[in-house]
Amino acid sequence: MAFFDHYGDRYYYFDAGAGAPVLLLHGLSNTGRAWAPQVAEMVSLGYRVIIPDLLGHGASGPVQRTFTAYEQGQAILALLEFLGLESAVFVGLSLGGMVALEVATTLPKAVDKLIVAGTFGTMATPNRQEMLNIWIEILRQSDGCLKRFKSSWVGLVGEAFADSPLGMACYQTWHAQAALQDSRNQINWCEGMKVYDVGQKLPLVTAPTLVLAGAEDPMSPLTESQRIAHQIRSAVVDVVPGGGHVFNVSSAHEFNRRANDFLRGNRHG
């Protein structure tokens, strides 16, 4: 199967491999295909890889209301139940990391291990509220999703990757993806992100946790990763060299090495 329904919302998910389940959660305006650099290696290492498209993204249904990371987390827990799983390893980048942290603080027993990358403990700061408002303003323009994508591309992957042949191929694919998106989905997500704040709940996380920071991530700095890890008893921080916010793509080899070492029990930090 490739779809499941949760309170009237339809979700698409990709499911490959066998073994311990690993659930990968993508960022805002992306899709599960952003995890392509991780899938084959994780499957070859003996994991069952499960990748949902968040609501309003990819092949999942639209977001017709203000939508929060907490609500998305509840739907992800419903997906686990739908698949007959009591728990899984959670890996989330950016917005996906926010969703993973909501799950890990709401139902800690559902998370075997946790990896969050380039993510946030809160959006309730003046700078981040302003950032979300700027995104909403762009998204309300004609072809807003495409305009926001084009303006953020280098920040997503870094200059070196953007100029590489692989980066150009990635740009072409993601450009077409953005051209097909409905800006109302992202606006509803941005409005929901404004209320996100798990800072006080982070001590509730019980899973061994790896917090990955991109060395040149322009959106989520190392200090944010350190703040998150400081509040989680079992957390360590590791820095992935290279540029970009979506550094599982732009620095895939180093991202994979750190993530897979952690999952095998070799802690970094």
Q: Taking Cα atoms only, what radius of gyration do you get, to the nearest Å? A: 17 Å
**Regions with little confidence, pLDDT below 50 for 5+ residues:** none
Helix fraction bin:
40-55%
How far apart are the termini?
Answer: 39 Å
Share of residues in strands = 15-25%
CATH topology of the domain at 3-123 and 197-263: Rossmann fold
- Helix/strand/pairing category: alpha/beta
Major sheet: arrangement of strands: 1-2-4-3-5-6-7-8
Total number of strands: 8
User: If helices are DSSP runs of H or I spanning 4 or more residues, what is the number of helices?
Assistant: 11
Give, in order, the helices and strands: EEEHEHEHEHHHHHEHEHH
Largest sheet: 8 strands, mixed
* CATH superfamily label of the domain at 3-123 and 197-263: Alpha/Beta hydrolase fold, catalytic domain
Second-tier CATH architecture of the domain at 3-123 and 197-263: 3-Layer(aba) Sandwich
Spatial shape: globular
Task: Output the keywords.
8-stranded mixed beta sheet, 269 residues, Rossmann fold, alpha/beta
Describe this structure in words.
The structure is a single chain. The protein contains 11 helices and 8 strands. The protein has 269 residues and is α/β, with parallel strands linked by helices. The chain has a domain at 3-123 and 197-263: Alpha/Beta hydrolase fold, catalytic domain (Rossmann fold). Helix 9 links the parallel strand 7 (209-216) and strand 8 (235-243). Helix 1 (36-44) runs parallel beside helix 11. It is globular. The termini are far apart. The model has no long low-confidence stretch (mean pLDDT 97).
